[in-house]
Each structure stands twice: as structure tokens, then as C-alpha cells.
Amino acid sequence: EPLPEQITHAQLGGAVRPGGLxxxxxxxxxxxxxxxxxxxxxxxxxxxxxxxxxxxxTTALAxxxxxxxxxxxxxxxxHAIDGARGLDxxxxxxxxxxxxxxxxxxxxxxxxxxxxxxxxxxxxxxxxAGTSAGGTVGTGGRPRALVLVDGVGAFVEHHDRVNRGExxxxxxxIATDGPAVGVHVVLSARRSAEVPIRLGHALGHRLVLRCASxxxxxxxGVDSDLAARDLPAGRGVLDGxxxxxxxxxxxxxxxxxxxxxxxxGRLPTAIPVRTLADPQGWxxxxxxxxxxxxxxxxxxxNHHALVLGPPRSGRSTTLATIAAQLGGPGRxxxxxxxxxxxxxxxxxxxxxxxxSAAGDPGDPNRRWLVVVDDMPELLDxxxxxxxxxxxxxxxxxxxxxxVRIVASGEADAVARCYGDSVRRLRxxxxxxLVRPDPDLHPGLLHTVLPLHDEIPxxxxxxxxxTPDGAVAVQVAM
Length: 477
Fold this sequence. Notes:
The protein is of the alpha/beta class. The protein has 12 helices and 20 strands. The protein has an 11-stranded mixed sheet with strand order 2-1-11-10-9-3-8-7-4-6-5.
């Protein structure tokens, strides 16, 4: 009996192996029967789906998604990257085993955040416990993760121009290293030539659907009958067996809200200061990190800081956020504000602060935060030499005096400023670069910025720089 041209989930049995993905029926003529077509990710990692337009590639990926979340014994998180605009059918799909999230292939911010988080999970293979159930569950009890990419050709074409192909390299690394930590990749493409070589070699299973021509079928090592125009959608060869892929209707899939395991998201363009957590000593929350959307902290425990950027980039607003966080009501920190455009009284204020800090250095309840707006302007004024000396002495006493200095300056003006206090602040290699020129401004804090073409410019966008590196952030306003 030939395979039916259309199959529903009701006609399929369960998986034979724990974590197996049932995606259709397979024909075994020598046994004169049909069996469930099952993908076992524990024996061979990943799946590549190849087929011409209308052959059922997206249907095959939807069948994988449906099967993965239907198995309550194996918790699964599905991350779908939609390059063919056809995966809406699995958007927010959920079942006993987990749920799915779908992002467009050209949503650079979400795609790169997702792939970076999964690559980080893959790199933890040496520090976490091994996988359980033969690789069907992630390390540390984390759910198995499936990454579905529908239309890898469009994905590669687009991301080849973003961050020098970072997403393509990330996906290849995940496909290679992910199975050891329960992360598996499923791709679809029209032709095998669309799949990067390293990526293709990492995928152990292959499903070939209807081909565009007999020559293409021969190149893929399948019978020329697979190029017949009247072949039903979803008919193909899975690892050498003739199969019919199950139809995955939108009505068959329940919908769920967001999950704690969602990794793709979007960096907000505005964060109210009132929503931030309380500071911990000299460690102040100032916004949100772009890499994992967690809280961004500026730690002044062992370092002072510089806030640098071009004109109208938000330097003064960033200073105000830092001052509000550390010097808010009941936080035990007195804020001393200096303005380069209004320097009157600055010498007296710093002199008094120096005497106070020296007079009672051991009182843990007395702390001072010096906020200097437009520091180059302040040092260029008539009292510049005296102010430079006062600031430099306070900077050098970071280990003994409960005083921290956060100064701002227009980046090019700071580059031309040779005061001792400015040089000492720059040598600390800590601060915030607000909307910087990536080629010119990072050197002011002795750092380099990684490529982040996916993060659009917005007020408050910048980088927290520490001696350990730089992280893109959205500063609260």
C-alpha cells in the first residue's frame, strides 16, 4: 500500500526512543508496512531539510516543532528563525514538553542575542554536568533546545553583511558543539549549495523533499522520481527511507505566553530610573545590558569613572542617573556637583570635601560622590590648575577615602586634555561611552568595542567599559 498523500497527527504513534521526534510515516516495502518516521537526536545530531519551492520544507520544520513540544517527558524550548516567512504556524506553540518562539531572520538584534546565548551554553560543556537521557536534556537540568532555521539561504545572505557574518559563525558553532549540551539545529534550504559547508557537515540527519530537477535529485543521491511535479508536498527521503511528512495545521497547536527560558528579546529605548534596583554599596544599577537584557551595573568599588561621548549624546543625563542611584534619599552618599560651564565655588567645594574625607576616613556612614560635568571645560578655566590638583589627590586616595569621582566630557575634548586628573581617570579604564565613534572614542579608555551592527542608535545607548571589556547598554533616563 503506498504512503498516503496527507497525514494528520492522529494517525501517528508515539516516539520509540526517549526524546525522538515523530514527523510522519515511513514506507518499508520489504516489510509491507508503514512505520513512524522518527528523528533520533541522541544518535546523530541535527537535521537538514532540502527541497524545492512548495515541497513542504516549512511543513517539515513545523512537524519537528509540534513533535518536540508534545513530548512531556523531555522538556524542550524551541527557537525558530524564520527566513522564509512561513513559520507563523508555530509562533508561540506550546505543549506538555515546552513552547516555541519565532523571530524573523532579519531581526538582527533578536537573532544575535539568541545565538550568542546558545553559544554561551555550548561553551559551558566543560564546566557543567553531562547531558542526561543521551543528550535529550540540557546540562544542569536545563531543557533541551531546538534551533529551527527556515530558509537558511536567506539567513546567510542577510547575516553575511551584519557584524562580518557573526550569526553564521555562531550557528555553525552551535550545530557542532550544541548536541553535547542538549542544543540541536534543524535547517531548511532549497539547495545544498545554500548551506555553509561547516554547518552542513554538523547535521547528521537529512530529509530530501521534492527536487527542482532530476539532475538535482541525482546530485543529492536520491531517485529521480523525487523530482516529479505531481509529488505531494511533504513526500521525501529521510536518511534513506521514503516518508510522508505530517500536516501541521495552525488549529492543532495551542498558544502560550512567554517563558522563563526565552532568550530573544529587544533592548528598550527608554528605561525609567525609578524602575531600577537599589545600589549595593558603590555598585549602582544604571540601565540594561544588551547581551542578556539583565541589569547593567556601574561598580565604583575599586575605580572611578569617565562618561564620554559626542555633543548631545546624553552625557549629562547619564551623570544624573548615576547621581540619582548612589545619592538618592536614605542611601548615605552626599553628592558634590561641579559644572565646567559654571565653575564658581568649585575650589571651595573640593577643598572642603578633601578636609572632610581626611578628617574621618573610617566612618562607613559617610560617603561622597563627586559628579563633574564637562571636566575639560572645568580644567580650562581660571582655577583649572588648582582644581586639577585637588581632583588628582582625591583620585589617588581611592583606597583610603570614601570618595568616588564620575566625570563627563566631550570625547574629542578629553582627548586634547592633559591634566593629571584626566590622565588618571583614563588610566582606570572604567566608564561609559555614550553613542561613541567606534573607531576613535574607545581608545580614550584603552579598550576596543566589539561589532554590534544589530543595535540601532537611540538616546542613552552606550557601552559600560571596565578593565575586563565592554558591554553595550541602555542607560536609564
